[in-house]
Amino acid sequence: MFDLRPVGYVIGLLVATLGAAMLLPLLVDLAAGNGHWPVFAQSAVITCLAGGLIALACANGVQQGLSLQQTFLLTTGVWVALPVFGALPFAFGATEARAVDAFFEAMSGLTTTGSTVLTGLETLPAGLLLWRGLLQWLGGIGIIVVAMVFLPELRVGGMQIFRAEAFDTMGKILPRAAEIATRISSIYVGLTMLCVLAYVASGMSPFDATVHAMTTIATGGFANYDASFAAFGPATHYWAALFMVLAALPFVRFVQFTAGTARPLLRDSQIHAFLGIAAVLVVLLTAAQALGAGAFTEPALRGALFNGVSIMTGTGYASADYMQWGAFAALLLFFAGLVGGCAGSTSCSVKVFRYQLLFASIRAQLARIHAPHGVFEPRYQGRPVSEDVLNSVMAFFVFFVVTLGVISVALSMTGLDFVTSVSGAAAALANIGPGLGEEIGPTGNFAGLNDTAKWTLAFAMLVGRLELLAVYVIFTLTFWRA
Amino acid sequence: MFDLRPVGYVIGLLVATLGAAMLLPLLVDLAAGNGHWPVFAQSAVITCLAGGLIALACANGVQQGLSLQQTFLLTTGVWVALPVFGALPFAFGATEARAVDAFFEAMSGLTTTGSTVLTGLETLPAGLLLWRGLLQWLGGIGIIVVAMVFLPELRVGGMQIFRAEAFDTMGKILPRAAEIATRISSIYVGLTMLCVLAYVASGMSPFDATVHAMTTIATGGFANYDASFAAFGPATHYWAALFMVLAALPFVRFVQFTAGTARPLLRDSQIHAFLGIAAVLVVLLTAAQALGAGAFTEPALRGALFNGVSIMTGTGYASADYMQWGAFAALLLFFAGLVGGCAGSTSCSVKVFRYQLLFASIRAQLARIHAPHGVFEPRYQGRPVSEDVLNSVMAFFVFFVVTLGVISVALSMTGLDFVTSVSGAAAALANIGPGLGEEIGPTGNFAGLNDTAKWTLAFAMLVGRLELLAVYVIFTLTFWRA
Ligand SMILES: [K+]
Ligand SMILES: [K+]
């Protein structure tokens, strides 16, 4: 078997970093004078100590670079280890959450899913609310880096198509992964700060603006109020919709844009397709409400825009009870969630580029059916697509659909009804957050589910966030034989 | 544009043949003395005349063989033209069906879907019941011939993998398509006769036995009673389950078996996988009932066997209200229907071999992830699978899932609820018959749906029966430019 120590070393360091991040909510609770700060002090000490010890224990195994197996194990290991420690404040704090609930909330945070098992969010200490926002914000930047740097190398889910691109299109200026990560992080921080300003300008308190900006740019969806965005005024809804859309675009395009080349941003066919689908969705959702009410109103348009964008980007905020809009709207939102945003963003799900690749392949095939001896090559963004990429995308799509089915059946086995099982599986696997129906819909909550269902959903979040194969590959025998 | 006359000629002949088939229900109604025979006389005259005139008008275009375009147009044209004329007895007869209902019923018959808009089946003239059975029986043999002879040539949905096989494994004894068709038809007739005998032996009247044997071997599911198989005793359920399984196996294996070689039948990995999945399904469905009732009973096992096999093979009979078995059973049945039977049988849906091919491809890819420079070839039944076949299967799967989504949304737009929309779309596209929920579930009926929903479902049946791409290719521009 291969050496596990380099993996443990990095995980240890990241766990310790998470512990350090707990100092922020500690300070907030200290400033608020609510007496809740010792929770974060305890959690921070435990987390930093545990992380430090793991890193220390593995330090003698540090080497140059990671093997393929080590990289896979690291990716999944990080998203299992961090939620364990990220859960501590929920277990120790005012929420007094049981292990399953604390882990569910932390996994939901770090995978930017945004399903919550907590109620009465308004009454929670400020530190805990900030911690929820921080988990999503860190999870969001973490996943972009993984998607840009690791997944292309691992050739998972067709992400290798962005391998050459990320390096090429920056014109060899940014040859190293670390530099890409740094540039993207700056964009991430910059967008978050702009979002804070917009929210404050439209009436949120600085604290709410900060937490919600974090969960907006992470397309995470955790909110400080049980009512989600229904707690805020119309102006915030429009700003949130704008920033959710921005957060679902490929971040590498922003890097290029700030470097002075707007062309890649404006000419990206993935962005065009994403915006096109979102526009159609908003029009149809508005129509569904207008036909139901017999009149076209601004709240209907705003509700369609905000909630449509929220589900399609996988953010998961709600500003209205869209279960009241009828089965047509519910199904549209369900399938929009299975489309998702762009690759290289914080949004999850199948993602637009995979549908584009699948359809490009199908178009080439239809052409081949007409002219069996012709040569037709599927193309994406003007370049030919290799069989390797197409096969990866296909594997992703099949695994996604089959996993969705298996998770749905598993949930129904624990006693959930049809719609809750299917929409819950989709909401977790695509990291959206809310599902459909009374229980886990926009006005509901995951608190009432049984423990088995919660563990199942937490697993689905992990698998979905890491593009399925990056997790599944670890369960194969050949992986451990290498 | 290409010559349409050869296509019209064959369609005309087939329409005339359908008209001739109306003489059977005519004779039955004449013998029953119910005064209903003129309906079939009128229908037969119109159908034979129309078919004859079409054939005559196109006769001067007859040529040797059909081009690719002509073959595509013929396949879809047949399954549009025959339902139009097959609908006449429902419009003229005791059912006095409106155009949409008559067409729905005939399309549901000829595609072997088995969804019905008729109620009070017990009270219908015998001729009409026989006509429903005949439509499914003819549709069933028609689709096997299309699947064995046409689709592999058209390279649709990965069926080309059976192209070499059908000819090869018969050891060059059967080089011509017509001979394959003849042999398979004999098996089809033979199985139907055995099924009639089994049903009569277990207590059905000869008439019921004949009609139900026809709809069993066609995995069609039309029944003579509103209660479906709940109208018959336990022994019929076991026999029906056996014959539904046989009808979902690749018919070419029976041809080889009757030619004296049992080995291909026994060693077919598609058959193994199909029987394995069906066994797991029956065990889980039995468990779902036993856990609910607190006891294991014969009716529970029989209900699980009969209804599980009925949905998985896409037959669509019901012997119990399986909506009462809970959400777990409902979801299991829903996904079992999306698996389907074996290729080269009368059953529809995605089919077992496509999942096998997709998973073989994924396995090869996982191996490639571990060892990026190794060469891993997906294999099926011991042979390497070409990229062409894999791409076709992938295209089929993507189109299937996307079409399922689009049809679901379209149905919800007409006012159907979530479960009815999704399960109705699946039931039509996979040619199963019944859906889930009150309205179109095992105890329900499609009569109450609005007309738009009925047309949409009829279209889904057609598209699903012809493996999607065979229909979609006609909507492409390049098709007509050839
Ligand atoms: K989310
Ligand atoms: K059927």
From TrEMBL, chains A, B:
The family classification in the record reads: Belongs to the TrkH potassium transport family.
The name this protein goes by in its record? Trk system potassium uptake protein
Q: Where in the cell is it found?
A: Cell inner membrane; Cell membrane
Residue ranges spanning the membrane: these are: 7-28, 40-59, 71-92, 134-154, 180-201, 238-259, 271-296, 322-344, 389-411, 455-480
**What topology does it adopt in the membrane?**
Multi-pass membrane protein
What does the protein in this record do?
Low-affinity potassium transport system. Interacts with Trk system potassium uptake protein TrkA.
Q: In which residues is K(+) bound?
A: T112, T113, G220, T315, N431
| An MF annotation (GO) of this entry | potassium:chloride symporter activity
User: Keywords for this entry?
Assistant: Cell inner membrane, Cell membrane, Ion transport, Membrane, Metal-binding, Potassium, Potassium transport, Transmembrane, Transmembrane helix, Transport
Superkingdom of the source?
Answer: Bacteria
Q: Does the keyword Repeat apply?
A: no
One Gene Ontology CC term in the entry: plasma membrane
Q: Taxonomic lineage per UniProt?
A: Bacteria, Pseudomonadati, Pseudomonadota, Alphaproteobacteria, Rhodobacterales
Keyword Ribosomal protein in the entry? The reply is: no
